[in-house]
Design a protein that fits this description.
Strand content: 15-25%
Oligomer: single chain
Distance between the termini: 41 Å
Bound molecules: 2-phosphoglycolic acid, zinc ion
Number of strands: 14
Radius of gyration: 21 Å
CATH topology of the largest domain: TIM Barrel
Order of helices and strands: EEEHHHHEEHHEEEEHEHEHEHHEHEHH
Strand order of the largest sheet: 4-5-6-10-11-12-13-14
């Protein structure tokens, strides 16, 4: 059947921080109808596609998204009405309609809402679960979660500088068991934090604990002990991941660990991170250095790429050009994949394909400002990325994704690749070739 798009519309909703975001609704010519909600970051990378805001101080402190909503209801709706419902063509067409490098005209939030609503409507029309419809030729696989337990940085009032201290529950036979272990560790962490005399004041933006600690390394000590207290073996069953989000404490070539009154160069940061890898069961380090510190990143990659995954988030911003540039420069060996950093589903898949082709690991990721939409869980499964990062196991904008994965595991019979996970660590050496042009 020759499916076409009948209507597209959008409206303003609220995200998990109570900030406005977009919900888009799309109807196909066969009556299939689906909506999608768009997330939003706080510790955003400089090179992300534009999350279009109204800048009208009279509404939501300027964070309203009525302009983006109007762009869906106006130019996007009239341009798409009657067009063939083919994901790649529609995404490409919206990119052309926007006409800018960073989607600043229509807004990546407007475009992404429509892109994801189309994917869902196509799945409904094909009577397939979303993950199966999205998978196409890829081999779907359940993802191993990377779960936030302790937060710092911009997500927890800047108590410590490093943003996320996470666990990876890989030593389990199923996703269901891995999730149960995660909850036990989250609880053990709360006990340990309180017993150690750090007041627990609710949860941070991604649902993890955000205590005021005396140093960044204290979070690693607490996390390792929490794994043990919950009855699991660090490294053998559960490993640690860090998201330093270092762009956000980097200024003038210096990494400022204000909570520890220490200022470090890129080389000193790389040494510190290496010491931590020696001392703690760390297998993954995201944004260990800042988004434009390519030289620092090259040195960090040389030192650590044969031991852990070095994940670029702000560094690559899910941008095919930045990822290609990183690969050419021998920078990092893994990429964080956030749909709204680039703004269409097709470009997201392009990044996943480039990563797979160059043996870079890929982690499909939520934002700190999320919605109850569980699209990401299906995307992680469909892409075969093998890893997902959603935040902690509290707050329903996180649980909608964790719970969706429980359902997919139950329905699909797909295998949980946790026990293979450690075998891939240290095998993703970046190829250190000569730098070419800038991205
Ligand atoms: P953000 O943070 O969604 O606030 O950008 C998430 C991350 O840095 O991974
Ligand atoms: Zn990050």
């Amino acid at each position: 059947m020759n499916l076409t798009i009948r209507t597209v519309e959008a409206w303003e909703i609220l995200d998990s921080r109570g900030n406005p975001t977009i919900e888009a609704l799309l109807t196909l010519s066969d009556g299939s109808q689906a909506s999608a909600q768009v997330p939003s970051g706080a510790s955003t990378g400089k090179h992300e596609a534009v999350d279009l805001r109204d800048d009208d101080p009279a509404r939501y402190q300027g964070k309203g998204v009525r302009k983006a909503v109007d762009n869906v209801n106006g130019p996007i709706a009239s341009a798409l009405s009657g067009r063939k419902a083919i994901q790649f063509d529609v995404d490409r067409f919206m990119i052309e309609l926007d006409g800018t490098q960073n989607k600043s005209n229509l807004g990546a939030n407007a475009i992404l809402g429509v892109s994801c609503a189309l994917a869902r409507a196509l799945a409904i029309s094909a009577k397939l679960p979303l993950w199966q419809s999205l998978a196409g030729k890829a081999s779907p696989i359940l993802p191993v979660p990377m779960v936030n337990i302790i937060s710092g940085g911009l997500h927890a009032g800047g108590q410590i500088e490093f943003q996320d201290f996470l666990i990876i529950p890989h030593g389990f036979d199923s996703y269901t068991e891995a999730l149960q272990a995660t909850v036990a560790i989250h609880r053990a962490a709360a006990e340990l934090i309180s017993e150690s005399g750090y007041p627990l004041t609710g949860v941070a933006d991604e649902g993890g604990w955000g205590p005021r600690l005396e140093s960044n390394e204290t979070a690693l000590k607490l996390l390792t002990k929490s794994i043990e207290r919950a009855g699991f073996k660090p490294k053998e069953q559960v490993s640690i991941a860090i998201d330093a989000a270092a762009s956000h404490f980097h200024d003038g070539g210096i990494y400022n660990l204000q909570s520890e009154t220490r200022m470090l160069t890129a080389e000193e940061m790389a040494s510190l991170l290496r010491q931590w890898v020696d001392r703690y069961p760390i297998v993954s380090m995201e944004d260990g250095l800042a988004e434009d510190d390519w030289a620092g990143w090259q040195s960090l990659t040389t030192r650590l790429s044969d031991r852990i995954n070095l994940v670029g988030d702000d560094l690559f911003t899910t941008n095919p050009n930045r990822l290609r540039h990183g690969i050419e420069r021998g920078v990092a060996n893994a990429v964080l994949v956030k749909m709204n950093q680039i703004g269409t589903l097709s470009e997201t898949f392009e990044v996943l394909e480039i990563a797979a082709e160059h043996n870079y690991a890929a982690v499909v990721s939520a934002r700190s400002g999320e919605t109850e939409d569980s699209f990401l869980a299906d995307l992680a499964v469909a892409s075969g990325a093998g890893q997902i990062k959603i935040g902690s196991i509290t707050r329903s904008e996180r649980l909608s994704k964790y719970n969706r994965l429980l359902r997919i595991e139950r329905d699909s019979g797909l295998v949980y690749p946790g026990r293979q996970f450690l075998k891939t660590i240290g095998t993703r050496r970046a190829n250190h070739c000569k730098p070419t042009r800038s991205p």
